[in-house]
Write a structure and sequence with these properties.
Layout lengths: L5 E2 L5 H20 L5 H10 L6 E2 L2 H6 L8 H14 L5 H8 L5 H14 L5 H10 L6 H13 L5 H10 L1 H4 L7 H12 L3
Antiparallel strand pairs: 1-2
Helix pairs in contact: 2-4, 4-6, 5-6, 6-8, 7-8, 8-11, 9-11
Length: about 190
C-alpha cells in the first residue's frame, strides 16, 4: 500500500495497525465481490462512510460500482460513498458517471458528492450544468450551484451571478426554492459581493 494517501484516526501504532487492517479487509472484500452480491456490496459501502475508513486506495474500487453493470441503488450508494471519502481522485470517476446517462436522482447525488469533495477539477463540469440548464427551474442546476458554493471557486462566480440575476422573477412565488436564492447563498459561501 505504498503511494497511498491515508487519513488516519489516531497517533499511536495500535490505532494505525487496526486502521490498516480494516482498510485491507474492506478493499479485499469489495474487490472480490461479484455484481450479484448486492447486499454485501451495500453493507461494505455503508461501512466506508465512517470516519475510520478513509483511504485513496478505496476510490477506484468504490468507483467501479458506478458503471452500468450495476443497479442504480449501488450506483447511488457508491456515489455518496465517494463523496464521503473526500479524495480528489474520485472526481474523474464521478464526472464520467455523470456523463454516462445515469438517472436524474443519481446525477444530483454525483453533483452533491463533487461539492463535498471540494475539488477545483469539478468546477468546469458544474458550470457547464448551470449554463446548459439556463432559464429553467432545474433541480440539477440548483444542485450544481450549491456544489460550486461548497467548492468556493472564484471561477464559478460569473455563472452563478448570471443565473441568480436571470431567475429573480421566477423566484417570486417560490423564493427559497428558486435558483436566485440558491445562487445568492452560493455566492455568500464563495464570499463574492
Amino acid at each position: 500500500f505504498e503511494d497511498v494517501e491515508w487519513i488516519t484516526v489516531g497517533d499511536n501504532q495500535k490505532d494505525i495497525d487496526y486502521f490498516n487492517l480494516g482498510i485491507t479487509t474492506l478493499v479485499t472484500r469489495l474487490a472480490n465481490m461479484n455484481k450479484n452480491n448486492n447486499q454485501g456490496i451495500v453493507a461494505t459501502l455503508f461501512a466506508l462512510r465512517g470516519d475510520n475508513f478513509k483511504s485513496s486506495l478505496l476510490v477506484p474500487i468504490v468507483a467501479r460500482f458506478l458503471n452500468n453493470d450495476y443497479e442504480d441503488n449501488l450506483k447511488s450508494i457508491a456515489t455518496v460513498s465517494l463523496g464521503e471519502l473526500w479524495f480528489e481522485s474520485g472526481v474523474p470517476f464521478l464526472i464520467e458517471s455523470l456523463d454516462s446517462g445515469v438517472p436524474s436522482r443519481i446525477q444530483s447525488e454525483i453533483v452533491e458528492s463533487l461539492g463535498k469533495i471540494g475539488s477545483e477539477e469539478a468546477v468546469v463540469k458544474l458550470i457547464q450544468i448551470v449554463e446548459e440548464n439556463s432559464n429553467s427551474l432545474s433541480a440539477l442546476r440548483n444542485d450544481a450551484v450549491r456544489a460550486l458554493g461548497d467548492i468556493r471557486s472564484d471561477e464559478a462566480v460569473p455563472a452563478i451571478k448570471k443565473m441568480a440575476e436571470e431567475s429573480f422573477d421566477l423566484d417570486k412565488k417560490y423564493y427559497e426554492l428558486g435558483p436566485g436564492f440558491v445562487g445568492i447563498k452560493a455566492l455568500g459561501k464563495i464570499g463574492s459581493p
